Amino acid sequence: MRALVKSRPEPGLELLDVPVPEVGPMDVLIRISKTAICGTDLHIWNWDQWAQKTIPTPMTVGHEYCGYIEKVGSGVTDLAVGDYVSGEGHLVCGRCRNCLAGRRHLCPNTLGVGIHRPGAFAEFLSLPYRNVYKLDPAIPGNLAATFDPLGNAVHTALSWDLVAEDVLITGAGPIGCMAAAVCRFAGARHVVVTDINPYRLRLAARLGATRTVNVSNESLSEVTEELNMREGFDIGLEMSGHPSGLANILEHTSHGARVSLLGIFPGKLEIDFDRIIFKGITLKGIYGREMFETWYKMSSMIRAGLDTTPVITHEFPAAGFEEAFETMRSGQSGKVILSWD
């Protein structure tokens, strides 16, 4: 089969012919239809410090996808050949305290598809059946391929009651843009998205941001005054992974604000703990999705009318992966799809 492989410890990927993965008795083989490029995949492409210490070589990468079941293991009884599926990319141990308590997203032994084991940038993916999620056939493939990052956005946003609240999202990457749509759909009042990339800010506006702010030339203080917000934002969603994003949240949120942290910060971070303590701010770290409550909620919201399709801006055949990655790396895109059909 064809697969995008990190074959050597250096920048880039290669489209190679590799063996079809084996299927164990409790696994399924998924014929991949669509995949989406993630920010994590860019780290792997660039072969940065994180990738060098994390990614084994050679290995097929990629973890955002949808497809159809091609084969089921002998012990699998509730999935069938032809089912339209995606899958949870975090594989957990099932035996630690959190797993046994139903908090699988907090398993300390988590392994990632396309990170620690062969991934989905390929014609076929082998996955434990417990990680497979059946999709509504009405959901288009390009949208279904983005369910992994949409799940990040849903988990980050729905950690808090959003009804009538004012939300500040720092970072207008694809997940930040999708989070804006989720917040508006869930009943938030003002959803303000900050970034320094005009393309991404326009995309955030299309996804439902009530106000976008280019923090390189606009003041958040002036924006809150413009919106007649007297006490600051009730909710903060840090999506940028940039120290200034968290600093803006701590400065411009209200006393008692609730803050989700999804962005990954480079190295150690200096934090103004006085603001956190004296403002009584609650911080919550977000990693992945709640299994499988987040999948249920995002699927239900999509069926109920949540539209995140504007975040998908480009599509390429799998053979055009180099152009696809360059498009993603340019910052002048939302989600970029690779088609394996």
How would you portray this structure in words?
- By secondary structure, the protein is an alpha/beta fold.
- It folds into two domains: 2-146 and 308-339, Alpha-Beta Complex (Quinone Oxidoreductase, Chain A, domain 1); 151-285, NAD(P)-binding Rossmann-like Domain (Rossmann fold, 3-Layer(aba) Sandwich), CATH 3.40.50.
- It contains twelve helices and 18 strands.
- Strands 3, 5, 6, 9, 10, 17 and 18 form a seven-stranded mixed sheet that branches.
- α5 (147-157) packs across α6 and α6 (174-185) packs parallel to α7.
- The two termini are 12 Å apart.
- The mean pLDDT is 96.
Please name the fourth-level CATH homologous superfamily of the largest domain: Medium-chain alcohol dehydrogenases, catalytic domain
- The number of domains: 2
**Morphology call:** globular
Q: How many DSSP E strands?
A: 18
Mean pLDDT: 96
Q: Which structural class fits the helix and strand makeup? A: alpha/beta
What share of residues are in beta strands?
25-35%
CATH classification class of the largest domain: Alpha Beta
Largest β sheet strand count, sense and barrel closure? 7 strands, mixed
The arrangement of helices and strands along the chain is: EEEHHEEEEHEEEHHEHEHEHEHEHEHEHE
Low-confidence stretches: none
CATH-defined architecture of the largest domain? Alpha-Beta Complex
Radius of gyration: 20 Å
Helix content: 25-40%
Q: CA-to-CA gap between the ends?
A: 12 Å
